[in-house]
């Protein structure tokens, strides 16, 4: 496939235009290739130098990431930014970024994917950020413990960064916003959720959660945002001729 065909497929699935006024990311193609055919697409959370080099070594012609290199403010092409772009150009490796569209997507998004792992039903949109709702909330068919919620969140046995076990022992409802969504816990409290799941949280919410009786799982910014890129890779592989590979560069954060 050529890059314009891949771009068209991704745009049709992710509906980038919906988030153009609210997302600080420059979603879509951020760096082109020379127009040659692409047979393999690499997927990753971050467009780091290590990710770029490993995607190139894997024979990818395009790297599709959640966190790209270009955001709303202009960035000079010097230092680490220069080295990343040079590595892309040297490898003839295109770069495509999808930030909020990959958080909010109802099928291949980070939050829908986490909700599915948890087994939440009766899903509703949740977590307003910059005028759009990017998360999901729902209920469990049968109540679960905090340990069971963690087991479902990380079926591979990974561990969360931290847990605030301040909610009811039997958890009936949960809200999910991946990544750095500390403040959205207040929305979860206001909407009566027993559990809030996000990537990373700050000290400031501790006492509010304790006093309001809500549990929080901080699953890790990186870990909670591997979900969407993997789901998108699976769908791209099913619906196109492209081979796909996931580049895992965990940060522990």
UniProtKB/TrEMBL annotation:
It comes from Teretinema zuelzerae. PANTHER family: GTP CYCLOHYDROLASE 1 TYPE 2 HOMOLOG, NGG1 INTERACTING FACTOR 3. Transmembrane segments: none annotated. NCBIfam families: YbgI_SA1388 (TIGR00486). One of its GO terms (molecular function) is metal ion binding. Gene3D superfamilies: NIF3 (NGG1p interacting factor 3)-like. A divalent metal cation binds at residues 66-67, 103, 221, 225. Keywords: Metal-binding. This is GTP cyclohydrolase 1 type 2 homolog.
